[in-house]
Fold this protein.
Amino acid sequence: MAQNDIDLLSLLPYIPPAELTYQEWVNVGMALKEAGYSASDWEEWSRNDSRYHTGECERKWNTFRGAASPITGGTLVQMAKDHGWRPSYNDGPGYELGWDDIIGSRDGVLVDKGWLEGKDVHEPANWDPVQDITKYLEVLFEASENVGYVTESWERDGKHFPSKGLCDRTAGELIQQLNKYHDIASVFGDCNPEVGAWIRFNPLDGNGVKNENVTDYRYALVESDSMELEQQHAMIRELELPVACLVYSGGKSIHAIVKIEAANYDEYRKRVDYLYNVLKKNGLSVDTQNKNPSRLSRMPGVMRNGRKQFLMDTNIGKASFKEWQEWIESVTDDLPNPEGLEDVWGDLPELAPPLIDGVLRQGHKMLIAGPSKAGKSYGLIELTCAIAEGRDWFGWKCSQGRVMYVNLELDRASCLHRFKDIYTAMGWQPRNIRNIDIWNLRGKSVPMDKLAPKLIRRAAKKNYIAIIIDPIYKIITGDENSADQMAQFCNQFDLVCTELGCAVIYCHHHSKGGQGQKRSMDRASGSGVFARDPDALIDMIELEVTDAVIQTELDKEVVALCIDYLDKNAMYWRDDASQDDMCVAKIMLETCKRRLSAPVYEQLLTDIDAAEKAVQSRTAWRVEGTLREFPKFPPVRMWFDYPRHRLDESGVLKDLEAEGEGQAWKHNAAKAEKKKADKRRSKKQEFEDAVQNCNAGEPPTIKDLSEWFSSSGQDVAERTIRDWVKKFGFCLDRNSGRVVRSEQ
């Protein structure tokens, strides 16, 4: 046997050769040869097709000489899946996922065709043809409904086809005549016993036999020519199809008249598509030409080429289509069974070890949310490096292990340079960069439900402890404001966690507008599912930096630069400097000016200018968390000092607030005070203009000012003018009695 992740021969029973085109049959052979199997393996499987000719497989096999893009075992996996095969995710060494696989759901698969035990089809010993067709009509039709049927046929190239047939009588009329004559031919007309007869299973309007003539979309036909009769029979009963009538066709198939009970044609099509899809996934390849509601089926009660077309059973399986659909979805949902707490109380499973101490466990999910320019991508790259090296991230210790960074936004070169920039800025040696894999998908991203299987396929057997996805807006499926659609989207992260046994970490952006008055878990854009689904939410909000804080940071930079320059260029300078001196930027600059040569001092000033620009470009942030597995941590404050985040160890950011943060009354009071101040400034300016202009530029008297203001139409008393003189910084000259500025 070839050394594959899965035994390809075990897939062949799921791929009926009789259903394949010639090229598909050849592809199976090429895949088997590429995987190291023998021509006899291909031939043994091909014998199940009536088109098989001895020796043909061997001759064709010898023409397979390899290709630049060979047909591989993955082709057989997909063909088997198309015919109902489903792998077990937990058994065996694994298998190669298809490109578009959806992981983690059996999705309608109930029956393993390879283990299905056939159910015999027995011809009735005491067959009553009239009773068969009568029962058929009674089950499917109301007495007043027109029935379409065909007994005449025509031949072409040795094959017989039904004619248009008739639809001019009701079920009640047909049953009445059957009871009267007790002979099918007398009621329906003679048919060719080599060919048999047909009947339509949905009622008609009597004006024709097309889809538009169907009056009630009640039933659909399920028929398969590619499976043994016994297996067809077993499959129909195993799936508990809501079958109204089960008829043996007298040939290679059983005809199941399945209850659809659709209100209109659109609903009929949707329900039939659902029905056929479930049957296909379970390995029953249905003839899709039978989808039409006006389709003909085999009429029970007549002979066909020496065999009976007979009614096998009625009203089997579920009572209705809706009941069957709900049952299918409930028994194939892949959900675990409930367990009793008492059974595990004394042997509780171990908790997953922390990936980020106090924040996130291995195998869990974490969301980082923040506005643009928060450096979220840099933060995730920092986290990637911290996990690879087993270092701290934002002040939290990380477990060491392999990690994949899924880059959806940056071009490859920019992404790789960012990793090197982070290592350099953090001052870390790249001792464990072998632990980092980067999957660059800019311009190639697909929705998460399609990305998940591709991701799992590449990450399998890599033993990653974390998958980091940046950012998720590139792979969102559906409306991000829809709770149910975002719940389905977030479920894909669970699948990745479950299949790979690793943590999934991803980032998302804040909604528009100020975030200061919102809770951290309400800031992420879109549905609240984003904040409530992950096991850990890390939220970043920008703080409003004051001039005093900027100056404090600049002073620290100046002091650090001065000390560095003095240590390198001035001997024994510390003998003349106290500890307090070495904390004051102005004193340190004066010391440098005295102790350093002019060129060195000029270079220091150049570096200080660069440091000032760097300080001005820094942004301040507060990190808050909502955790499921750990207690809430106190807010973490940090600088984003491109390209890295740096903790605020001095506490200078402790009292800063975000935009819109703080109590509303404070903002209203500040706004009112500003309005008053503006009004005061405006009135003062008006008074100063009056003093300057009301007496042709000469200092005015109190009377001059009173007449000036009163000229606008509202009298202003001299007493009021005297109050304004004092209030706005003026006085009366002792000699002249005129209004002048106080400083004069």
Summary: The first strand starts at residue 146 and ends at 150. The chain has 22 helices and 27 strands. The CA atoms of residues 389 and 432 lie 6 Å apart. The chain has four domains: 8-103, 129-331, 354-543, 666-741.
